[in-house]
Design brief:
The structure holds 2 protein chains of 2 kinds. By secondary structure, chain A is mostly beta strands. Chain A contains 2 helices and 10 strands. In chain A, the strands form 2 sheets. Chain A has a 5-stranded mixed sheet, with no helix packed on it. A 5-stranded mixed sheet of chain A has the order 3-6-7-5-4. Chain B is flat. The longest helix of chain B has 30 residues, at 2-31. The chains are: A mainly beta, B alpha+beta.
Chain lengths: 165, 731
């Protein structure tokens, strides 16, 4: 982790996590908490990527299989599976991810735009950024890893469901 | 600092909103023929206080308009302009413009074009012959809080009895010795509300201001001063009668009272008798014998006598009271009833919501406790008592949020007036059940659906006058707006006596728009429901009122988001009724915990009639995908929620239970469930708070063990069939 200097302006923190062998990142400011995977209550009549709803301190929040939502193979549940609870435009949702990796600071200028080609919904990836990753032994891998930054607003469930309804 | 001002201004706008509601109700009553003094005075007060507040915040346009409006109202109140239907109509239009002015002052709308309304008001004023000629200037600014000079000796003793505020003012009552000659006087009676001082409505300031107009005090009625034990030094007890030279404009006198506390009595009238010292005909009833003792000061009494009189009053009170030691603290002395203003407070809705959420949590914790304790332990820790108290707190918090539905209905008359102009149709509005109380959240959310329903009724439902005459109907159409509570549901109806739904055309349109297939066989009800399908509009020309094909779709989705539904009932040639069926509260539900394919669901108990364990052969198929259950000779359709929800269920019906529910739309229906776990109150958590409403579900709840159970929406479940699902209507 780096400094907590908010004045820098160009720096922001992201949470990185693995999903379908890729490394993704979301803006730290949207993150509410990280929870262990707990089987949610399934919902009828919803798209398959909505795994159900769970109880977050008295709030009923949807749990989304982020892999399916992004068009990858569904995540297999294992010991390190966890749920990132995020706030998207005032609504809370949990994203099932394979493993949470790190919290890193990146500079706004380091973010490259995502190529236009990728998915049906090109806007889901807000940009690409290369980060130096920590190895298990504490040394840094200088080659670094590409992180796919997610555009949470584009992942808004309400937006998606409005279209589906 | 500016935040503070904004806050005060926000209160002003709230008061404006309340004032507008009051004014509109009064005007509507006048339109309906109730022109009693009370009603007129109510409207006057409402407009007057809007003007006052607007002046203080520098909303010049609003002030000027309200002022003109007020002038007319004042003349009507004074009986100088008869409240004829024509005049009432002008006032209603003026009211609409006033509403627009308030919106404009809020910065939500451009300044309305008020010239026509002003001219109409002017016309009304001119026609009755005499105008009070009050200039339409901004009203007096907030009285400057001049400190009263310290009271000399006479007050000292009074001090001990907490009489200070009144005693101080005595010195300032020095009226001019000689009254200016005038052929007529204004007689002003001013009785501040009991709460005037608490509301910063210092009567002294008002009297000072009147004195700048040449007013002099004729008398002070101290009759209502209670015995010391009941005396609250924070209360105002006196009634002043003053006279003001006749050449002063009535508007200027009234301006002095812009900032009086609510419920104060202010009466300004011409003194018919020229004798300046005529006995005041205040509202005071014939004084009872005790009154004199408390110093009903005659008009002619010199001021010094008055002061002495006051002194005597104080002493009398003191003498008549038990020794101070045994007197209760005056500030907590019981206050006389009838002061409603002081018994209400404004509370931020957010705080109420938070409270409600916390109480909801408390209820959940209660059931967690109940789950974890053995029955004996529950008794030992007095859990039932705790549960009862929690329940009471919850009921009370809920009732805090309950508001009469009038609030949602209040904008309808205005809307219909506009619609009447736009469509050229004469529309009568009848409202019923306005006092029905509904959760504030529900009221806020039915505004839009209600607007659409009314527009729809006025635009599509009602025919033009010519068509109506041709059909042998009253040329004026009628829209009935009603609300009633039935059990845990609120029914809000918009009923028109128009042409009814043209089902042929609706169906043709739906096919054309691809909402249904060309060979779909639909019942009348199903055709009617198509009106609520997204993208549906039959209006040949898209008017700016309705017909964009979003209206009724919005109605349906909004109402369903509230856990309610919309019913449409139409009789060709006779009219259409739209009914919104809404939950009474958004927060709590008496439920039965059932299992469907092993998963727990909550079935609202209000719908449950009985539960049966079917005998072999009691459930029979009537088609490959429909079943009935034989209930003592009555065949009741059976639905499998597991199938509707796509849950895996291979359980034989004989191993299941059938819960017979009563639905509004489809009568008795049997729902197949695995088992029944429990019966309990659950706190409803809406799914759309973080997700989206889901068809067939009324929300979710958190059970005692922290897990979530989904709440079944019986009406939606019962309405869903496998036979027919219109495209675009399935969620």
């Amino acid at each position: 982790m780096t400094d907590t200097n908010d004045n820098a302006g160009t720096d922001r923190k992201i949470v990185t996590f693995s999903l379908a062998q890729q490394t993704f990142g979301i803006d730290m400011r949207a993150l509410i908490e990280i929870r262990e995977w707990d089987e949610p209550t399934p919902l009828p009549n919803v798209p398959g990527f909505i795994k159900g709803v769970t109880n977050l301190r008295g709030n009923v929040i949807p749990v989304v299989g982020l892999a399916e939502r992004l068009g990858w193979e569904p995540s297999a549940i294992h010991a390190r599976s966890c749920v990132l609870v995020v706030n998207i435009a005032g609504k809370q949702a949990g994203f099932l991810v394979d493993e949470v990796n790190d919290i890193v600071a990146i500079g706004e200028t380091e973010i490259q735009p995502a190529p236009e080609v990728e998915t049906i919904e090109p806007s889901v990836i807000a940009g690409l950024v290369r980060i130096a990753t920590r190895q298990k032994d504490g040394t840094r891998d200088e080659k670094g890893t590409m992180v796919l930054l997610l555009d949470l607003d584009a992942l808004s469930l309400t937006k998606h469901l409005d279209l589906a309804a | 600092m500016s935040d503070e001002l904004d806050e005060i201004q926000a209160i002003f706008f709230e008061e404006c909103a309340e004032g507008l509601v009051t004014a509109e109700q009064g005007l509507s009553a006048m339109q309906a023929g109730d022109v009693s003094a009370e009603v007129i005075a109510g409207v006057f007060r409402a407009v007057h206080s809007i003007k006052g507040g607007a002046g203080a915040f520098g909303h010049a346009d609003l002030t000027a308009f309200a002022h003109k409006f007020e002038n007319v109202l004042d003349e009507v109140r004074g009986g100088k302009i008869p409240p004829s239907p024509g005049v009432v109509k002008v006032m209603l239009s003026a009211f609409d413009i006033l509403t627009d002015h308030v919106e404009s002052a809020k910065g939500l709308a451009p300044r309305p074009a008020d010239e026509a309304a002003l001219a109409a008001l002017e016309q009304v004023l001119a026609n009755k012959g005499a105008d009070d000629g009050a200039p339409a200037a901004a009203p007096a600014p907030a009285p400057v809080a001049v400190e009263a000079p310290a009271a000399p000796a006479p007050a000292a003793e009074a001090d001990e009895f907490g009489f200070v505020p009144m005693a101080v003012s005595l010195d300032d009552f020095d009226a001019p010795a000689e009254a200016p000659a005038a052929d007529a006087w204004w007689i002003v009676t001013f009785k501040p509300s009991r709460a005037a001082l608490a509301n910063a409505g210092e009567p002294l300031l008002i009297i000072r201001e009147l004195e700048t107009l040449g007013a002099e005090i004729l008398s002070v009625d101290t009759e209502t001063v209670p015995p010391l034990r009941d005396l609250d030094p924070e209360d105002a007890y006196f009634t002043w009668t003053l006279r003001v030279p006749g050449e002063v404009a009535e508007g200027d006198i009234n301006d002095c009272f812009d900032f009086v506390a609510p419920d104060s009595l202010v009466e300004v009238r011409r003194d018919e008798a020229p004798a300046p010292a005529a006995a005041p005909v205040a509202e005071a009833p014939a004084a009872d014998t005790g009154a004199d003792e408390f110093g009903f000061v005659p008009v002619s009494a010199p001021i010094e006598d008055f002061a002495a009189e006051m002194q005597r009053v104080v002493e009398t009170i003191a003498a008549a009271s038990p020794p101070i030691g045994s007197v209760e603290t005056p500030s907590i002395a019981p206050k006389a009833g009838g002061d409603a203003a002081q018994q209400t407070i404004r509370v931020d809705l957010g705080k109420l919501d938070l409270l409600l959420n916390l109480v909801g949590e408390l209820v959940i914790r209660n059931s967690i406790l109940a789950d974890r304790l053995s029955p004996a332990d529950r008794q030992r820790v007095e859990l039932p008592e705790l549960a009862r108290l929690t329940r009471q707190i919850q009921d009370n918090v809920m009732s805090l949020r309950a508001q009469p539905i009038k609030q949602a209905f209040s904008r309808v008359p205005r809307m219909l007036r506009d619609l009447s102009v736009e469509t050229g149709k004469t529309i009568n509005l009848e409202t019923y059940g306005e006092t029905t109380e509904v959760d504030k959240g529900v009221i806020e959310k039915i505004g839009d659906p209600l607007t659409h329903m009314i527009r729809n009724a006025a635009d599509h439902g009602l025919e033009s006058a010519e068509e109506r005459i041709a059909a042998g109907k009253d040329p004026a159409g009628t829209i009935k707006l009603s609300a009633e509570q039935r059990g845990a549901r609120i029914f809000v109806r918009v009923q028109d006596n128009g042409r009814g739904i043209n089902r042929e055309r609706v169906k043709a349109k739906a096919i054309e728009k691809g909402i249904i297939s060309a060979d779909a066989v639909l019942s009348n009800e199903e055709i009617d429901q198509l009106i609520c399908a997204p993208g549906f509009s039959t209006a040949e020309t898209i008017s700016n009122i309705s017909g964009r094909g979003v209206g009724m779709d919005v109605v349906r989705s909004n109402v369903e988001a509230l856990g309610g539904r919309v019913e449409i009932h139409s009789v060709p040639g006779e009219g259409t009724t739209f009914t919104m069926i809404l939950p009474l509260t958004l927060a709590i539900l008496d439920g039965m915990i059932v299992r469907l394919a092993g998963q727990r669901f909550v079935l609202p108990l209000a719908h449950v009639l009985e539960t049966v364990q079917p005998e072999p052969g009691q459930v029979k198929r009537t088609s490959p995908d429909s079943e009935v259950i034989d209930m003592r000779g009555e065949y009741v359709p059976v639905k499998r929620a597991t199938e509707i929800f796509g849950l895996n269920d291979d359980r034989a019906v004989e191993d299941s239970l059938v819960v017979i529910v009563e639905s509004e739309a489809h009568g008795k229906v049997g729902l197949v469930v695995d088992t029944i776990d429990d019966r309990r109150e659950v706190v409803i958590k809406s799914l759309d708070q973080n997700l989206h409403p889901i068809r067939g579900l009324g929300g979710a709840t958190i059970l005692g063990d922290g897990s979530i159970a989904l709440i079944l929406d019986i009406e939606a479940l019962v309405a869903s069939t496998n036979r027919y699902t219109p495209k675009g209507m399935a969620a």
